Structure formats: structure tokens, C-alpha cells
Amino acid sequence: MSPAEEFRQIADWCDANHVARDFYGEGELIAGLERKVAGLLGKQAAVFMPTGKMAQAVALRIWTERAGVDRVGLHPTAHPVIHEAESYQALFNIHGVIVGHRLRPLTAADLDAQAQPMACLMVELPLREAGGLLPAWEDLVALRDHAAARALPLHMDGARLWESLPFYERDAATVAGLFQSVYVSLYKGIGGIAGAILAGDADFVAEARLWQKRLGGVVVQLSPMIASIALRFDHRLAMMDALHRRAVDLARSLSRVPGIRIAPEVPATNMMHVYLDAPPERLQSARDAIARAHGVWVVPDARPAEVPGWSLVELTVGDTILELPDADVVVWWRRLLEEARS
To answer: Which of 231, 260, 290 is the last residue of a domain?
Structure first.
């Protein structure tokens, strides 16, 4: 969809729903979305923020201030660590305590092995850098129980929480109920222009609004962003089961191609890591050649895998792949690998 097409869609939806402008975070459009997501997450309140990075930083700031402890527990691949230039430390002088192993979800044993005092523990669901891996429900409950025994709040990095629900076969409120605060993305699986929700108890969200203002996150008008989310929110949530099933089927088919391996072997969400027996530069050269010759963009950018000569591609099953049979997808991956290795 082009920007012009998306903006027309937003305008039509606003016209049909008699949408009024919001003003500095006030207005029924934004308030209605906040109430809706808070209800889905089973939390007392929620606040919309323009970015997930802001939401996560605010959550960590609140928990450290409440605890009087400047350390927070973070997985080795936590988004603030590897994608945000350690913003929590630069902005708030918060120190990260690394908990767990980078290739698997956090466990109760990981927490027990870390004796340092922490203000909270951030838990990412799913673990993006492990191909969307999720802990078993029993393991997640055990982590919650061990954290509770230490009076340690759990904060969920739920950027892909919606995509995780089919795996757990539980609703969002049940999963979020294990956590004292939750961040969810409204652009990844939902498809909005941008935006995030930070949810928790009423006092937590009141503090979050204050920090949002301090960080310059209260924007004069957010109507286009909110409308782009609201017009597709219910529809996108309803697609998560189908996207997950499609990812599982596609992973099975791709894994039969010599030189391709999938992690996790059975995807927990609609994303997976695809390992290919070809170096990234050759893979991307072959991809670009296929795109020029056939108008088919097979894969996003590849990066070096830990095995020399192999590449890693993060694959997310979305609307396009959802409608294509396995054979029509696999044939291009097979050709891509053949050309990269020739």
C-alpha cells in the first residue's frame, strides 16, 4: 500500500466514524484506544506513546524510582541493550544486569542465579533474536513465582505479544496478568503507522504520563497514527492464529530444502530465523538479481550466521505469504540459494 492509499484509507475511516482531532494526548480517539488495549491486557490503565523505545525507557525509570535501586534485569538480547544504544543508561543512569542466555528465553533458574538487587526484570515475549522463541507457559509462571518471592516486578517487552497468543492458547489478559507492566507495539503486528501502549496499574500509568511529558512525547496531534491503528486493530488481532499456522506450514516446507535450516524448528509465532548455506553478500547479490529480472523480492537483508559461510534471515509471515501456497514461496528460496552458491 502506498502512502497516498493509506492516507486515503485513514481519511475515509475518520469520515465514517466522525473522528475529532486529539490535542496533546487528549480526545476520545486516543482515550478510547487506551481503554480498549488496557481492557484487553487486563490492566487498570494504559497510555499511548509515539514509540516503543520511549515506553520501555519510561517503564524502567518508574520501577527504578519506586525501588530506589538503579539496576534492572535484562536479557542479553533485550531491545534496549542491542537496538537502543543503552538509552536507559544514557538518559537515566540505570544499569543493566544481564540475566540468562542469549539463545533461550529467561527462566526461573536464570533469575535465581543472579543475586544482584534489581528494580525490575524485563522479559521479552517472544525472544526476537532467537527466532521468536517463547518459554513454555509453565516456565513463564515459574519465572513469575520466583520473581514474586523476591518482590521483583516483571515488565513485559510485548512488542510481539499479539503474535504470541496462539502459542499459549490464552488471551492477552491472562498472559499479561503475570506482569506488573506491559508494553505492546501497535505497528508491528497491528500495522499502524507507529505507536505503542504502556499499561499497568493506575498509579503506574499516571507516572508514565508524567515521564512521557518530560521526554517530549506528548505530541500536539496524534490522530493520523491513532486512526491508522484503530481502523485495522480488530482485524489484525483476528489474523494472528492464521499467521502462526501459515508460519508453521512454511517452516516445514522450507526445512526440506537442502542448505536451509529453520529456528525454532516449529515456529512459536509468525516469525522464524532461516539459516542458509551461503554467505550474506552472495545471498543478497542473488536476491537483487532475482528482483531485477523477475520483480520478486525473496528475502530481507541477510546477516552472517555464527557458522562461517552461512547466513541468517529473519522471516516474518505477513499478508503476502499468507495468501501464497508453499510451492510458490519455496521455489524462490530454492532458486535464491542455488544462485548464491553458483
So the answer is: 231
Cis status of the peptide bond prior to 264, with omega within 30 of 0: yes
Residue ranges making up the domain that contains 313: 238-341
CATH number of the structural domain spanning residue 201: 3.40.640.10
Q: How far apart are CA 327 and CA 287, in angstroms?
A: 18
Q: Which of 262, 232, 231 is nearest to 249 (CA)?
A: 262
pLDDT of residue 25: 85
Name the domain count of the chain.
Answer: 2
49 and 198 in a common domain: yes
Average pLDDT score over residue span 60-73: 97
Residue 247 clears pLDDT 90, i.e. is over it: yes
Q: Which of 201, 231, 261 is the last residue of a domain?
A: 231
Task: Confirm if 69 and 97 have CB atoms less than 8 A apart.
Answer: no
DSSP 58-88: HHHHHHHHHHT--EEEE-TT-HHHHTSTTHH
% pLDDT > 90, the chain:
92
Average pLDDT, the chain: 95
**CATH assignment of the domain containing 284:** 3.90.1150.10
State pLDDT tens for residues 12-61: 999 999 999 888 888 999 999 999 999 999 999 999 999 999 999 999 99
